[in-house]
Each structure stands twice: as C-alpha cells, then as structure tokens.
User: Fold WAT1-related protein from Phaseolus coccineus.
Amino acid sequence: MSVKNIGQVLTAAKPYLLMIGLQFGMAGNYIFGKDVLNHGMNRFVFIVYRNAMATIVLAPFAFFIERKSRPKMTLAVFLQIMVLGFLEPVFNQSFTYLGMKYTSASFTSTIVNTVPSITFLLAVIVRLEHLKLKEVRSVAKVIGTLVTFGGALLMAIYKGPAFNLFHSGSTTHHENGSTSHNNNHQMSGAIYILMGCMALSCFYILQSVTVKRYPAELSLATLICLAGTVETSAVALVAERHSPAWALGWDYRLYAPLYTGVVSSGIAYYVQGLVLKLRGPVFATAFNPLCMIIVAALGSLILGEQLHLGSIIGGIIIALGLYSVVWGKAKDYSEPKLASADAEDRKSQQITATVDSKIDISSENLEKQTSSEHNKMGEEREMCVV
Assistant:
C-alpha cells in the first residue's frame, strides 16, 4: 500500500478514530463526576471549576494555533455562543449530575445513549435531516428512535436484581453505604438525565450551525467554556453562598474539575466540532454505547456500583435502537453522493447545451447580418449605375 493510499484510509477513518478515543475520555467524566458528588461537593461549584479549567487550558492553544485563521466575531455568532454555554455547561451538566446523584455513573451513561434519537428528532424539526417514510433508511431511523426511547423507559421503571462485576468486600460495603438510597430515586434520576439529554441534543444542533459560521474549532470550544463559566457562576453564587464550598485542595476537589474540564469540556468540544463538520450531528453521538461499557466496568471496579438487570436489558435495547438510527444515517452519506454527482452531470450538460444553443444563435445572426450587408452593398451599386 502506497503512502497516498494510507493517507486516504486515515482520512476516511479520522471521524471514527476521533469519536472512539473521545468515548474513553468521556468515561472518566462519569467516574470523576460520581466520585465528587459522593464526597458532597456542590454540583454547581463543580461545574464552574470544570469549565473555568477548560477555558484556562484551551485558551493558549486557541490563541496561537488559530490566530491567523480565526474569523471575525459577529453579533449572531456571539449570541449563539452564549446559548451554547447555557445549553451544555449550565443546563445539561447540571441536570445530568443531578440525575447521577440519584442513580449511578453506569445508569447515567446508559440513558445518555438516547441523545442520538433526540438529536435526530430535533434535526428533523429544524430541517437539518430530511424524513421520507417511503425510504428504508428513514424508516430505520424512526424505528430506532422509538426503540431507544422504549429502552430508556424500561430502565426508568424497572430495576431488577443487582450484581457486581468485580466482587470484593470493600466494594459491596461502599455500594450499600452510598448508592442503595440513590437507587430508590431511579425514576426521578432518569427524568433529570433525560432533561440533560434534551439540552445536549439542542447543543449538538446549534453547534453544527455555529461551527459553519465560525470555523475555528479550538477558539469556539474556548469561548463556549468561557460562556459556561460565566453563566454557571451566576447560578452557583445563588445556589451556594457558603465560602467553604468553594475551597479547592489537593484532592477530588481539584483533580475532578481538572479532568472533566480539560477532557470532557475542552477536548470534547473541539473533537465534536471537527466531527460535526465531517459527518454531521447524528454521527457525533453514535459511539456512546462504547462509553457505556467502559463506565459500567470502571463504575463497578472503582466506585463499587451494582449493575441491575433492568439497566442491562434497557442498555441493550437502547444500543439496538441507536445503531438502527446510525445505519439509516450512514445510508444518507452514501446515496446523496451519487445523486449529487448525477445532478452535477445534468447541470454541466444543461450548461453545455445552453452554450451550444447560444453559439448556434450567434452564428445564425452573424450569417443574417453578413447577407444583409451584401444585399445593401448590391443595392447601392445599382443606384450608382443608374
């Protein structure tokens, strides 16, 4: 295989590699988030520090790397960034962490798999996606969306027997002491997480629009984190006025916001922006089942969380529905290319025909003009002879 072929393969695999790598990083978001909530840190304060650290880390890279390619800021883009800062850092993170507090990290990561279906519905509403029920790919996306919501509903109403992936005495004690009470609020937790998913889907839709108007992914990610920091700070100052709650130390209060800020906010925004430009908003949410598996393993090993039968069955159903949506989306990227090529051919043929007709008309006019000139000259000669 030549170097050129290798480059083409890597270019085609780029969005897949980016999203797979991102899922491993996002798994840590659930683990660190659940751990910091178990220690009693206020979730609003946690979100403020998370986005502030993401802004501090990303800002230098965005400033130097994109200083020549960064477009000018417009009022429309500024307003969109402010809305993006509210949708993901404020609304989504707040309700997702609230739902996680009542359930578990693995439960949260499973429910988040409904985001592609919600994103698809919103994309249809705003006409970023076109739905034609006569086509198989559109039917697959509709069925996948319904199946995904069915799996989420099953997880919310059915718990089932529990078991540990990794059995140990300390794990069981930690689980009984910290999460057995939270599992009693499974329905409330599922509703909160779904509200966060709705906000995240809106974020994906608006981000796909904003990144086209402001094609500087690092700068856009930094500005979203900055907007989220400012907006969340206003909420946190109202929700938590006690100064000790804002204290940082060399423990979970530092490493949890640092990791989630850099990886889950900064890097995630940047990678998602790249993938959104390449494959669209639905594709960017298609790899969440991988994160669900990683979180289930780490949650049981590190946090001592128990897996429930309802969560496993619901997770499988959600994954099946998710990949039905993704399959339909993949067809959208294969067939339109042929259609666009045909359209371009037809367009070029029309242009060629138009040009040819214009040439024919021009030649006819030229012949008529030449013959009329000859006739006129002949008449003038006859008048002179007379």
Summary: The CA atoms of residues 55 and 222 lie 5 Å apart.
